[in-house]
Amino acid sequence: xxxxxxxxxxxxxxxxxxxxxxxxxxxxxxxxxxxxxxxxxxxxxxxxxxxxxxxxxxxxxxxxxxxxxxxxxxxxxxxxxxxxxxxxxxxxxxxxxxxxxxxxxxxxxxxxxxxxxxxxxxxxxxxxxxxxxxxxxxxxxxxxxxxxxxxxxxxxxxxxxxxxxxxxxxxxxxxxxxxxxxxxxxxxxxxxxxxxxxxxxxxxxxxxxxxxxxxxxxxxxxxxxxxxxxxxxxxxxxxxxxxxxxxxxxxxxxxxxxxxxxxxxxxxxxxxxxxxxxxxxxxxxxxxxxxxxxxxxxxxxxxxxxxxxxxxxxxxxxxxxxxxxxxx
Length: 328
Description:
Layout: E1 5-8, E2 14-17, H1 25-29, H2 32-45, H3 49-67, H4 78-91, H5 94-113, H6 142-150, H7 157-172, H8 176-180, E3 187-190, E4 193-199, E5 205-209, H9 212-225, E6 237-239, E7 246-250, H10 253-266, H11 276-288, H12 293-300, H13 305-309, H14 314-323
Antiparallel strand pairs: 1-2, 3-4, 4-5, 6-7
Helix pairs in contact: 3-5, 4-5, 7-9, 7-11
């Protein structure tokens, strides 16, 4: 089989694989056309690399379970899928189970279109009910965020980089993947203001003006790093050990997460925060200071205001105040 399939390993490095090396045995036994359509589903239908990786894991795990029962691809029935989903729900969260079922269902749909099988055994299977009115992402209040940024020594190159990274997530509500994908040219002047261009999911570009404090953080970082002339290069780069020097390699989401955890520990922040914390923190602070949900949705580049509402944690403080009314 020709062609290649792009996946991501545990270190978030892009890996290009020969499809034949990752096709489950049950698909191979179904014939060359089944192999072709299986590889084609991941290579052609799913553009986001992270989604591709998650769906590949999901269907591979399902087919391994089916293979243990000595079933052929054309012998899989709704009862088998329903049983698997029920078992999966014992160890995994509802969102994870729903994602696995979606991957299985979409693959079978594609195999039907490719005339590999006649029916989709996952079509009638229902996933677990799940509804979230508030996100689970830990957030920081205004004082804690200032404490975190203030604890970073911005006179060093790595310190200036780390403050700029955290500041960008706070002031733009940027996803860490969009931040990691930025090049130097994605921080640019337009009129009298500086703007940032975020590379969002699905290849979408999201452009918005910089907060004046973010401008300061980025300017300090770029001045110390002396990256101004390398417009096509990565904006945020990894450091070489403890030398304090940057490489030409782009920071990955995992690199940013490790940095955030390290900086939080150094600043005495006890909340177990992650990269997504700053998206929720920024949105909550914006709404606390008179911002509207509609504009927050626009700034966060959410498709639905319902998604933005999950990041609104203003009621957390209200709930705590009410609990403290108990004087027993």
